[in-house]
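During the first year of the project, the team set up a workflow for recording each protein of interest as an amino acid sequence followed immediately by a discrete structure-token representation. This format lets reviewers and collaborators read both layers of information side by side without switching files. As required by the reporting guidelines, we include two representative entries from the current panel. The first entry is reproduced here exactly as it appears in our internal archive.
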Amino acid sequence: MDEKEAPPQPPPTAFPHHHFSPSTTCINCGGPTAYPTPPPPSSNPTYIPIRFPAVNLPTNPTNTKEAIMRTPVPQSQKVVPLQPPYSFQTPVKIISSQNDIVRLHSSPTFANFLGFVVSLSESIKSHKLSDPCHVSPAVCTIVDVIEKLIAFVDEIPPVPQSARYGNVAYRTWHDRMSSDAESFMLLLLSPDLRDAAVELVPYFTDSFGNSSRIDYGTGHETNFAAWLYCLARLQIVKEEDYQALVSRVFVKYLELMRKLQLTYSLEPAGSHGVWGLDDYHFLPFIFGSSQLIDHKYMKPKSIHNEDILENFASEYLYLSCIVFIKKVKKGLFAEHSPMLDDISGVPNWKKVNSGLLKMYKVEVLQKVPIMQHFLFGSIIKW
């Protein structure tokens, strides 16, 4: 062929088309395609032929990006009620290895618990915290109990000490909470369920941090979700209570935990530092992103707008978390919270919410150091 001669043109086709075929030849016109053949699976083990997730994690030591990408978005499930005859027992720790995690994640028990967390997230979708909702006597009782625990903090001031973390006065608070825990449970239990207190108390007392290490993290927060799940299985709280469980109960729990964190300088348990979402919490980001789905004006990038944070943090959990982080951490937001900064670049809250649910499953519920403290009894069975 003469060097100046133009290459042969593909024959005209009956309709306009684009070269989207992965092969080297267009199936419509026989012309060459613009895309090279994808590499075979063996040539590069890290090649994943799907788009990147909504939540783009920074490169970090654990490199969990692929695991999160491959994880399906968790779906809501109706809680399976616990049927009599009951055999309540003191729940125990069982998980000690990654094999145990694999067994847990393949069980219907785990799927139902995670489905409950997703249901809570869906219940608050597109709602402000102040929106009217069904508030049952059980929800009111739980809120009253947490308010008593907040009052305990005011009655037990921190002791003077030089250590940055872990004020020992927290142990006094924890002892007082633990000693009253059974009476708190009995406020919620009907006569035929009074024996359930033995099983509910350990989940409850493990929801507020560890008294020997004086720390708190996402494992303790997960125990609080597990305690609520136990109440749901016992039908003490029902599906119509879910919105209030987030907007009334969980909000009050978050108020207590922030007060404990600031008053007694709780150590972050198992924190990833800048590589984590937050030093202490995960669930308020899930519930908070659900609140903002389809919001007309607030987008994920709105977390950088100080006016929005100031005016709406009291109504939206996600924004209140950002405000709290900015209060307790100094310096540039992108430096002390790079993951949250990355998430702010995601186009919409639905993608943020689904990405966070996947991340919660992988980063919290699949981690042995966190789940080794999880409890199993007759309500949440191993």
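The second entry, processed by the same pipeline in the following quarter, appears below.
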Amino acid sequence: MKVEFAPINIPLKRRIQTVAVLQWIFSFLLLAEFCCGFFVILILGNFWFLAVLYLLWLYLDWETPCTGGRRFQWVRSWTLWNYFREYFPIHLIKTSDLSPNHNYLLGFHPHGVLVAGAFGNFCTGPSFKNLFPGLTPYLHIMPIWFGCPFFREYIMSAGMVSASKESVSYVLNNEGGGHASIIVIGGAEESLNAHPGSLTLNILKRKGFIKMALKHGAHLVPVFSFGENELFKQVANPKGSWLRNVQEKLQKIMGFALPLFHARGVFQYSFGLIPYRQPIHTVVGSPIPVKRNLNPTTEEIEQLHALYLQKLRKLFEEHKRNYGIPEHKSLIFE
């Protein structure tokens, strides 16, 4: 394989953007493990009392990820995140007003490999606040990450909360409105489909978010992130292959998927874990009004789910030409 090296005279700003993305990759792939290792070192070392104090804190603070989290605007506003978003770049597109008098459940599609669009738009910078004043976004992620010492504090500071039913209910139960739950509907399983050009969404069997919206009267908003699947290449894993079977079994055991992805490096463009510089346009659709129904029937859930799929497909079709999707390509629901 011929290695393509980066030019020497690349502007400093682009270098800083690459470092910002490298930090993000480290946070997603290794920081949790690093934090757990550091905690073990504290326990086994001379500073064991600090680990005991943190365990006490963890016990007292265990429910915080399910009760709105603990965000810090200072972390969300780091200059580092500006360079992170500029690297791709990441854009948030508004198609309709969202009144702060309601609560909303935003369904984010597709998952991609590392959900860069969701993190960049809903956990960093002022874009969401400027486009949708009066709304506070909460990005729901797998509960397992909030059991990692120290790492949980970092992700909560950015505005991430648990994806448990209790957590989603807490956010959507805000009297007076003004809360927006962002749920990556396809989940970890969908990351295994995150190949360049892929438009396959794992959504046909995912109806829990519909039931939550009905129970709380939260308006549903489809969100499609164009470019999300273009950031990495993935080792071929068609359904039925031995690799896909192993990945799916591991996903069921651990709760998260392990896509074998690659892209570019820091100083060369041929291999590595740094994503490609591909623009991400996260388009927020129009809200679907939902009336509160504490005990929705299966038929009511099915009807709203069908309407959501219809609105999601319409959103995609209306905007695909703007972002380089061929006219003959459409979403595939699985």
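For the second entry, the following points were noted during internal review. The mean pLDDT is 95. The chain has twelve helices and eleven strands. Both points are flagged for discussion at the upcoming steering committee meeting.
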